[in-house]
Amino acid sequence: MADNLAAAFLEAAGRHKAKTFFYYETDGVSKTLSYGEFIKHAMAVAGRLSALGVSPGDRVAILAASSLEDSGLYWCIAFAGTILAGAVAVPLNESAPEAELKAVFEDCRPEAIFVDGRTRGLAALAPAAKAKILDLDSPEIKDIVPAEISVPGSGAPRGAGPQKHDFPFLNTIGRQDVAVIIYTSGTTGMQKGVMLTHGNLLADVEGIAGAEIAGEKDNLLSALPYYHAYPLMGCLIAPFLIGASVTLLPSMKEL
Question: Which tens digit of pLDDT belongs to each residue from 134-166?
Fold first, then answer.
């Protein structure tokens, strides 16, 4: 497997580009998103982050709903785009008390924050610095993918969109580097940031694949919010790298 999560995402997209990754609903209409389409969105988001000045190693917070319908879809695109930009993803609980969110922002000092319609106002809790705000409910994200972007490994013609060589930092990020910071209070107290490296996450995937817990023929049901490490691994990272599919619940009442 690759030496970092970004390279692993690109390789998996190249292997399974035509396969459905997400099954989801928008306003009651069933839809699908292929591996190739997903990575195109993520690459475009990575480009947007880079254009805003986000550099490899910078922290990018994701403060948005993630567990239902297409809100989960765009949350996952924001996460993958952050990883492809070489940044450190910081998934946050959008329902946490404002005092806790303020403390988390002051601790991680994000260069950019993804929000949605429910959480736009909460971005003001971040330190009065230079954090860039990206709204997952805006056309800036939902309509960000130009037609010419090509999926790695798809045999795209010269002059097509971003390819692996457009991510030169991939050769500088190793398994020892931090990929994600998950904030958790454990059993009590204020939330603390747990630093998960690229190696941590890739080792999980290797273990899941090796034990045949999930495989290419599987379709996993996503019901939990992605700011927890368990659904982040079990219903995004591992399925994508293994070649499985994921179904997003339309609502919890349908579980």
Answer: 999 888 777 775 555 556 654 443 333 445 556
Cβ atoms of 71 and 61 closer than 8 Å: no
β-bridge pairing 178-184 and 132-135: unpaired
Confidence of residue 84 (pLDDT cuts 50, 70, 90): very high
Instruction: Find residue 78's DSSP bridge partners.
Output: none
Phi, psi for residue 88 in degrees, rounded to 5: -100, 120
Return the pLDDT at 157: 39
Q: For 178-201, write each residue's pLDDT tens digit.
A: 999 999 886 777 889 999 999 999
Phi and psi, residue 41, nearest 5°: -60, -45
